[in-house]
Amino acid sequence: MSGAAERWAEKGKRPSITAVDRTPVPDADVCVIGAGPAGAIVSDRLAANGHSVVVLDAGPRFDPADRIDRQERAIRPYYGRPDVWDGDPERDAYASSGDRGYPLNHARVKGVGGSTLHWQGMVMRLHEDDFNAASERGVGVDWPIDYADLRPYYAAAERELGVSGASDNPYAPPREEPHPMPAFEPSYSDSLFAEACKELGIDMHSVPNARNSEHYDAQDRSACVGYGTCQPVCPSGAKYDATVHIDRAEERGATVIDRAAVQRLEHGPDGERVRAAEYVTPDGETHRQEADAVVVACGGVETPRLLLLSESDRYPDGLANSSGLVGRYFMDHLFAGTGGLLEEPTRQNHVGFLTSESHQFYDEADAETAPFKLEFFNYAGPSPVELALSGESWGDDLLGELRDAYGNNIAMGALVGQLPTEESYVGLDRDRTDVHGNPVPDVHWSIDDRALETIDRVNAIQKSILEELGAEITWQVDAESTGPAYHHMGTTRMGQDPAESVVDPDLRTHDLENCWIVGSSVFPTGGAMNPTLTIAALALRAADAIDSALGDP
């Protein structure tokens, strides 16, 4: 066992499931529902300020010592992606009723740490115009806060996550200090792309990553050791995941209860405050966790579902839903990609994450063109392990097939932003229930024409770069075949007007004075940047507001 694995094994010594006390915590100041990055960061910050915090998560607590086994599971073709983190189709049942099917379970993890357990780890700040889409681009809506309001929290979030990056992106918004760690060096295939991009006048720059390019003293986490399986599992712990903040919150006195599936939120007789979160444990017991403040941090799908399930005589359309907008304006980022083959080695799959990108075209977004960023892949084509495990040949025949099929693939990707529309939403499918008898979430995903037309432009740019390289283009993800990046945004949007939003600029619900929502569900628009850094920045900002509302512990 490697030194990194030994450290994770030591860290992972947890009580057995049957020994865990899942009864409510008396006299809790704060109940946080969801142990992903938003809930974990809020919990850690409030516990550090002396508040009594209890965290409820519907999924299990994974043993860090099992990550090597999960890595092996990830590289074997027999297992699908949900299998790596013990996805359960019955427990995680959902419906998809939109024009385009939405594979919700393909890229979500239910458990302590949430989807940061298997994310890729890219962390960019939204651009300034992303906060003012209506004013600057003529479409969408403006956020009730702007980049300047979030800028100090972005810096704090980069320190909290541990970000490796460089100030080499001329298109990025202004920043106040360097990233906590230096950026990863460009890969070999980046150097090939750089030659073509130089000829075409396209700028490349480094990708900020929430993984350690060196030992990160602030969290005693090791540098990346190059396993290359970053998505869906980092065995070394060099890539950030939310267990970092969950563990630290516990050290500061917080209580974390896993396998505590919250069924509904109960409000008081006046309907102005949440009184308790009702949850079910694996032994079938139902409990009520009371707290002075409740923070809902269940993600862009489960957060609106929980609010809709918490209907009452006072709130017949669901809790915090006087606007009728809970679940509305569901957004994701669209993927656009182009790939092919070169007649030379490209050294793919040595690096399991992105090291170069381009924001050059991002701020050209307007009413007709959506924002987008270009990505230069380091993992195009199959890996030798994947080919060997799925092949039927042996010995020299297998070696020859590996040499023919591996090593000369090259590809680009892109994220494209979509507009928020009421026709894209998360609702309840009352004809299908989960293991607890509750209606499952129904993801009704629709895509606007602006985003689809922008994909055409992205594909043209990608094709021009690959053709400049001399590549034979063999595939393309276009407007017809596009799919989601699994960034669930927009279903409890923030705003000043209670009739047009669910939460205020401090992420407190308009309807309930002691209930906050944190996560990407509060995004009024989504831009085209990976959302986790903005989730973390907003969580830190909300934690300050909650701390102020609670007063001295």
- Name the average pLDDT: 94
What form results from the Cα inertia axes?
globular
Low-pLDDT sequence parts: 1-17
Given the structure, what is the number of helices?
A: 13
What does this protein structure show overall?
There is one protein chain. The protein is α/β, with parallel strands linked by helices and 553 residues long. The protein has helices at 3-11, 37-48, 67-75, 81-84, 133-137, 147-161, 188-200, 243-251, 299-309, 384-390, 395-405, 449-469, 532-550; strands at 30-33, 53-56, 95-96, 164-165, 181-182, 205-206, 255-257, 261-267, 274-280, 286-290, 293-296, 334-341, 356-358, 372-376, 409-416, 425-433, 439-444, 472-477, 515-517. A six-stranded antiparallel β-sheet has the order 6-13-14-15-12-18. A five-stranded parallel β-sheet has the order 7-2-1-11-19, covered by helices on one side. It has a three-stranded mixed β-sheet with strand order 3-17-16, with helices on one face. Helix 2 (37-48) runs parallel beside helix 13 (532-550). The chain is globular and about 70 Å long. The two termini are 44 Å apart.
